[in-house]
């Protein structure tokens, strides 16, 4: 992986960026349309990352899932459109950024 801007890392499969809602890196696959601007990127279509909510301590996954009262892992959805360097989070996100827009943050050091 090589950092190509303060906001993106390039991989063999595409690009990755830091998601402030999930507090982790998200992939942007090669198959998506990209405007070529590594500082104010636009990727299309939207991205929908789904799985299970993770237990984190100090921003690091403990290896455990957040579970409901029956012991089942709680679903997690991060769905957004990245346009001109702005993350536009969709309403179906399960995190607190649902329906909000914010600038793509710099990659963590």
Describe this structure in words.
- The protein contains no helices and eleven strands.
- The strands form three sheets. It has a five-stranded antiparallel sheet with strand order 5-6-9-10-11, with no helix packed on it.
- The protein is mainly beta.
- The chain is globular and about 45 Å long.
- The protein is 0% helix and 50% strand.
- The model has no long low-confidence stretch (mean pLDDT 93).
- The chain has strands spanning 2-3, 9-11, 14-19, 24-29, 33-34, 43-52, 54-57, 60-65, 75-83, 86-89, 101-103.
- It has one domain (2-103).
Instruction: Summarize the main sheet.
Output: 5 strands, antiparallel
Gyration radius, in Å: 14 Å
Give the strand order, joined by hyphens, for the main sheet.
Answer: 5-6-9-10-11
Apparent shape: globular
Q: Based on helices, strands and strand pairing, what is the structural class? A: mainly beta
Helical residues, percent:
under 10%
If you average the pLDDT, what whole number results? 93
Which regions have little confidence, pLDDT < 50, spanning 5+ residues? Answer: none
- Estimated share of beta-strand residues: over 45%
Distance between the terminal alpha carbons, to the nearest Å?
A: 14 Å
Task: Encode the helix/strand succession as letters.
Answer: EEEEEEEEEEE
H/I helix tally: 0
> What is the count of β-strands?
11
Counted up, domains total: 1
